[in-house]
User: Fold this.
Amino acid sequence: MAIVKHIKSRNANYSAAINYLLFEHDEKTGKKIVDESGRCILRKEFYMDGLNCDPMSFDKECELTNAHFHKNKKREDIKSHHYIISYDPADVTENRLTGERAQAISLDLAKQMFPGYQALVVTHTDGHNESGNIHTHIVINSVRKTAVERQPYMDKPHEEAAGYKHRSTDKFMSTFKKTVMDRCQQEGLHQIDLLAPAERKITQKEYMAQKHGQQKLDEINQKIIEDGLKPTSTVFLTQKEYLRNAIDECVATSNSFDEFQSKLLEQFQISVIEHRGRYSYLHPDRQKRITERALGTRYGKEHLEQTFLCKDPLAILYVRSHLRLVVNLQTNVKAMQSPAYAHRVKLSNLQQMANTIIYVQEHRFDTQSDLKNTLLASKQELAELQTQFTQHRSNLRILNEQIRYTGQYYANKEVYSQFSKAKYKGKYRKEHAKEIQKYEEARDWLRSFYQDGKMTSLKNLTLQKEKLQQQISSEEEAISSLTEKLKDLDTADQNVDAILQMQIPEPVKSKTKDLER
Assistant:
């Protein structure tokens, strides 16, 4: 199956991307591999294309674009985005996937998802992170070079215009993953549902932390072994992996949440609580809790409660899984080519149909119109909530500026007052240039902001900020909850359409028309 990863980079040296993609690197250290003469070794097989640029001058062209739009000047600015599409190793032998074919597929995907951006599209056949699979790197400049038509996944104002920066939002990533899934199914390649939450969610950041931690632990253990001692630990665990392992062990022997909670605390010193309908775990070496979302669905409230229910002989045996889309066998290339695969899809479709019917009954949708009206109303509600959320975030930025300049104004007011009374103003300004400049900057900003001359006190501004932050936090939760609801509604709606379509008999050809001919 193809999977999609995203990495953002603040490195202003775009040449580093070209070097990594062209030359062999040590996956553990990240350093170039050189020959006996100290020269870089070109990768054995790769395919390279440029999108809106010459691939060999990608670095210079990106720098020119940034300079033209006066972007990416600060060190903390995100200079580029790196997307990796990794194909299933089995596709090479079972579905005749080659590097050239993967490059063609990925280039089409890049054109579709990154219009107007300068991008490097490079496919490697030597495996990624020792996985042995064909994979494609898509590296884009964060600044859009040319304006394009606005796309459905764009939720920021002017995002389609030239000079605006790319943002890898949840909405964009969902669209990208859906596009990859659809293309892989069209090509007859192995594919899983990338939009379904992962059972064990391991981010790129956690993967790299585990990799570096293991490398450091191996170095320490080597010294311990050389001293004639035995290492106490040979496997490095991230804090999240420690939690996952502990949860797996405790849930296997627990019949209720209370029992599970007690065992986690007694055996692993891990505290678990329920907050806003989700579980949160506290690692013994942390002050801040880790939510179930960061660990994966296997460690969430819904899955664990279902596990406890299944251990109860009086509990309902059937537990509904997450809704998945019914696959159309008429358009699925792989199903047409493989009867065994088609059989598996049919069984999966039956399960999803059953889940859809249960979902419809649970939510008391009497007619298909009820379902569609609820879906439409939820979409409108989400759009309104997102607009309100965006406005409140904008208000928070303005409020932060008010607090900043108000504090800056009062902090330097006394110095400026002394400056006004000073006999030798030139000398005083030179000695207190920084404070006077900050005061004048704050004064001018406040004058332009408060047209009536009435300033809000710093205390009231702070109270307003606290209230607004609480409102934004509440809206974030509401948007997240509504998005999950909308995803189930949309899946149920599409599945109901598919089920009803299957029940419509094929039209019989009219004999009358044949006779008339």
The first strand starts at residue 3 and ends at 9. The domain at 3-187 is CATH 3.30.930.30 (BirA Bifunctional Protein; domain 2).
